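haha ok so turns out i had the wrong file open the whole time. this is the CORRECT one, sorry everyone. sequence first:
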Amino acid sequence: MQLETQRLILREYTMEDFDALYEIMSDPETMRHYPAPFDEARTRRWIGWNLDNYKKYGWGLWAVVLKESGHFIGDCGITLQNIDGELLPEIGYHINKKYWRRGFAKEAARAVRDWVFENTNYDAIYSYMKYTNVASYSTAIANGMKKVKEYPDSKNEISYAYAISRSEWNSLLKFRRAKNEDTEEIVQLYKNAVAKMNEQNIPQWDDVYPDRSILEGDIKKNQMFVGTKNGKIAVCFVLNEECDKEYKKAKWICPDARFCILHRLCVNPKLQNQGIAGKTMKHIEEFCRTQKYDSIRLDCFTQNPYSRRLYDKCGYTVTGHADWRKGRFELREKNLWNYFRIHTADIAYITQQPRGIFTAVGKLVDAKMLSEEETVAYWKNREYFEKILPVPPFYKDGNPDHATTWFKYSPQGQGIWQQMDFYRAMCKKYGLKLYRSQAYEAPGEIIYEDDFQIAVKLTDNDLKNPQ
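then structure:
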């Protein structure tokens, strides 16, 4: 049995997974909501228990591996658990802490939720956890579950139980790529949308655009996505990297970013005013983050007040205009990340994290690798940045929390990076490859913050998105 998501593969356990699982289950931080971390024997029993479940039920907790690398990062699946005296189907998940805050638990649990309702007769699925386990119940909520119980538990002191019923699951907006068999329903949906726009005096679309050939091409190229609700298509949209030459006129927020372009977002007119467009935009942004895009770009008809209001609410900034057959369109963009860090591959002694660009160039100076002229320029640049960029106070104490700093994707934070030409030039000249790590949520506990940056205790040291 195997499930696939955008980034993950869920497969059956084997005993060869022991070492990777033991790293997770023996870790005190990961297991702080359990009575105690697992020892080797209990970890082996955990795998054996799931192997028995596969034979008995056809399901259990499955190993979660990264699709890109095949690396084991945890488990997720369905088991029968005693929840306040009842034996109920429960979705459980454990993710290696190196991969926290990337949405992997939510992505895996969502796939399991859908599989259970599609392949079993259960009318409801549960997740339960210790009342202190905020991350666990946040994942349950994100996957459509609601809190249904709070009860005393000898293991957890107090346990929370969350659940989603089959009828609630049916009414959820579920996204997938469009299929050939969706063609007629999609074409009709767009025709209905054009008719609705005409009633509202919004001359954005017509018989010429988007016509059947365009929509069939979107489906054939695997670029059309649909959101379904109660088995019917509620919304369609297209994602790719294709854009008209008019896009070159915009003053993009992230000019050097890897961007995705959103086209032809269309909500079924019969289902409008139900929040579907907003939920779809949230899904699109989450999806694009998993695909390592930095920003989303789109165009918005100036005579469509509904689209403009949606994109304003979702945080898409007008960066320019384009004039096409139907009139003027706004060119908009949204950066998908909140924090970024520019660093090298070598690990700093104090933080045990990749060394930031300021420190990396400072090390070149300490090693007397820069020329006399470059050294003078270094001290001049350092003095300048120390005046405009606040220095977190913990550095004076030797950084006892081993904190790292991340720039904010704010005008101030991006402004600092844009002024660091000297540092980039030194790294390039002396062979220091730079990487950009990005985070949507704070990558650890924030212990300092100003308009330019945050400092966090914990970060993961994956090197992503080489510059």
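The first strand starts at residue 2 and ends at 4.
again sry for the mixup
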